Amino acid sequence: MDIVTVFQNTAVLFLLLGVGYGARKCKLFDAAADGLMTRLVLNITLPALLITAMTGGPAEMPRRVLFYALLVIFLAFAVKGALGILSALLLRMPREKRGTVTAMVMFGNVGFMGFPLVYALLGAEGLFIASIFNVAFNLLVFSLGIKLVAGGGGGGKISPRLFLNGPMVSSVIALLLFLLRIQLPEPIAATLGHLGGMTVPLAMILLGSTLAGMDWKALFQGWRAYGIALVKLLAAPLIVYLALVRIVADPVLLHVVVLLSAMPVGTSLPMLCIRYDGDQELVGQGIFISTILSLVTIPLLALLFLT
Question: Does residue 154 carry a pLDDT above 50?
């Protein structure tokens, strides 16, 4: 296991974030540009990335393995959701922020930090399981996640139109393509690959620009943000491991789910906050603090579970 890879990938994350931060400070970006990038990622590049990941998996993988993996992954999300609700109560969060806290605990930075780390530590088999995890992630974050963060507290009703978004539709398409063993023509596959490759840099540049528009003092103020970060980085993966270790026989599946549960707060949440009027400040705090702390927690957890 190459622990140096963990630090290298995290360093790239901060460099990309710095590009977005510098661009916003230099007046190259503004709030309107953030909105445009959000729509580009949510509706074009992220759907392309998801379809590419699923259609690029091993064709010989039995379908029952897919359904078993999805069952385990959804169970892990249920555990994290319960932990998020409990954390919001223990941290005495205002009622309108409890949904946001739950979303922050449930949904991590799977796409950028999770995929490279899983591939480096667990190889191609782990990466394909991570792509299945990403399908479940998108099905949940762009349905339940919207409900949790919308309007700052998730109190609004879910309109059926909220399910007709790019990531949600592409998740269903990706599953169908895999189950039906449909191989995309090379020009289409290559185009989706190029578009999907834009997701990580765009998402991180967007995050940097969003952080640049915030009050930096506010990002470090308030003990609750640190509490949420510690729950996300340490309590969530440990509790998920304890909940699954006796019922999941496949060690690769177990390790992928635990590692991806240990990622910092997900970069898709600020995009949802921009789109659905959520609590951008709290999510920004959570992402910034948890990403910094993950420099220490992820290598420790990798050593704990993979050695």
Answer: no
Q: What is the pTM of this model?
A: 0.79
- Give the three-state DSSP class for 265: strand
Q: Which residues of 17-26 are buried (b: 16+ CB within 10 A; e: fewer)?
A: beebbebbee
194-242 pLDDT, tens digit per residue, is 998 888 888 889 878 877 887 666 666 777 889 999 999 999 999 999 9
Going by C-alpha positions, the residue among 54, 266, 296 that lies closest to residue 149 is 266
CA distance 86 to 231: 10
Burial class (CB in 10 A: 0-12, 13-18, 19+), 184: middle
91-125 burial, b at 16+ Cβ within 10 Å, e below that, comes to: bebeeebbbbbbbbbbbbbbbbbbbbbbbbbbeeb
Tokens of 106: 């449930």
Third-level CATH fold of 3-302: Na+/H+ antiporter like fold (1.20.1530)
CA 272 to chain centre: 12
Q: Which residue has the tokens 């967007």?
A: 206
Q: pLDDT tens for residues 130-143?
A: 888 988 898 898 88
- In 3D space, the residue among 171, 145, 176 whose CA is nearest the CA of residue 80 turns out to be 145
| Nearest Cα residue to 110 out of 86, 128, 137, 83 | 137
Task: Give SS3 for 29.
Answer: coil
What six digits make up the tokens of 97? Answer: 């922020």
Q: Return d(Cα 302, Cα 1) in angstroms, integer.
A: 9
